[in-house]
Known about the structure:
mainly alpha, MetI-like fold
Amino acid sequence: MKLRAQSRILSHVVLLVYVVIVVFPLLFVFISSFKNNTEIFNDPWGLPSRLSWDNYANALSSSHIGTYFVNSLYISIVSTVTTILLSTAIAYAVTRMKFPTLSKLVLGLLLLSILIPPASLLIPLYIMIKDFGIYNTPFALMIPYAAFGIPLTTFVIAAFLKSMPTELEEAGIMDGLSTYGLLGRIVIPLTMPTLVTVFILNFIGNWNEYILANLFLSNQELRTLPVAVVSFADKFNMNYGALTAAITISVVPVIIIYGILQKQIIEGVTAGSVKG
């Protein structure tokens, strides 16, 4: 009993240390966003002398962070939703439809695509986007983001579908539901915790992506937030207060989405272990 209590205390200490490691950089950036360069260099760990929103005003007005924010939000949401819709359809097909050989072939190709480093595809992807005439358009990012997210998302959804009983789907078929009806009325509602989890994973990956966004969007008005934040430093001659304000703005959507969908995310992560 004593050993169990000590083990529990040790696990709590480890978790507390992990929380501090994760939260401290965010807290440091947030506090620094209210300081000027002099305060940041003279007292980097201290609180700001006054609560000033000047850095946020500079970030939103002078550097058009608001426009880049909307661009990132639009591209990330559209590409993430596309990934989930296509992945759900693929996962349902390989787990429910009776094509054993074809299902294994599809899963094998998806597994192979996961093993290919995305960086090795930059040159052919650039040529394809140029040939298709979508360079310098949101589709230049939406299509690659959706394509790169499909393999892992499909595996996660397929794993959940394999553990889900088929009785409700069979009842739906007896009631005359089509394949799309089964997906819309039965499968998607039951897999919602898992879908929310993969939505967050894909959204964060798309939101933070820099290489493709910098390579395929040269138009300033179409640039996404990660590219804008990197170029932000040169534009403001290393105004660290304004830079940390821009970083804080870029973190806000992820925190809000996670806060709203926290319950569904936890259910999605634990669904496999509960059903297994």
